[in-house]
Task: inverse folding
């Protein structure tokens, strides 16, 4: 007649299972952190591309706000150009905490921007004048019906706005030095055309400018090794 497991044997099995589970969770947490700059970049790309498409098809100005105060990406339909009272929030998406993914500056250890045929300045984060984000620190891109992209202007309806693109940097700081990037990504929006491109910083490239168009990359997480 066979006997069952003893209490000691069951406890040993349970301890082994708990240890293996702990290792798995630790690996999973690190793996998820590795992919967060890509995830945040894709949220931004989705919002920017939707803004461009809506502005051209609906013939209305679509406003994208990157609000680092609230930690949100907003897509706003400005509707009537004469007032901000009828502006409609189309959708929003969260940003990761700055301790995990930084977005409001270029990584201090990277001195170049992605190369575009037309100049694309670094995104300008400033106190917002728009009712949905008033006084928050926000980078604003307004996609117009003619295909161009402008700044936020000097009031809530974009008065004195100028045609200008933006280079948005998305990067994860190193755990032991938050002034150095572990993973770096960028999005360029060309003001004259509204085109949106996604870039990866690949430290293995021999050239001085190590930004490469992500369409030529090997997928998420590529080009992340090195210092």
Result:
């Amino acid at each position: 007649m066979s006997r069952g497991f003893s209490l000691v044997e069951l406890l040993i099995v349970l301890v082994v299972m708990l240890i293996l589970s702990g290792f798995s969770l630790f690996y999973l947490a690190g793996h998820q952190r590795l992919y967060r700059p890509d995830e945040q970049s894709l949220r931004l790309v989705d919002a920017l591309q939707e803004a461009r498409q809506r502005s051209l098809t609906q013939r209305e100005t679509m406003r994208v706000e990157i609000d680092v105060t609230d930690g949100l990406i907003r897509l706003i339909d400005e509707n009537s150009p004469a007032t901000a009272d009828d502006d409609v929030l189309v959708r929003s998406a969260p940003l990761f905490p700055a301790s995990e993914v930084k977005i409001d500056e270029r990584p201090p250890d990277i001195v170049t921007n992605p190369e575009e045929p037309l100049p694309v300045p670094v995104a300008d984060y400033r106190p917002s004048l728009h009712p949905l984000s008033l006084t928050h620190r926000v980078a604003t891109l307004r996609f117009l019906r003619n295909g161009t992209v402008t700044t936020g202007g000097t009031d809530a309806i974009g008065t004195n706005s100028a045609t200008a693109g933006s280079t948005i940097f998305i990067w994860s700081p190193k755990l032991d030095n938050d002034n150095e990037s572990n993973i770096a990504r960028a999005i360029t929006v060309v003001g004259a055309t509204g085109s949106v491109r996604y870039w990866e910083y690949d430290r293995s490239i021999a050239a001085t400018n190590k930004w490469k168009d992500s369409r030529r990359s090997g997928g998420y997480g590529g080009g992340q090794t090195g210092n």
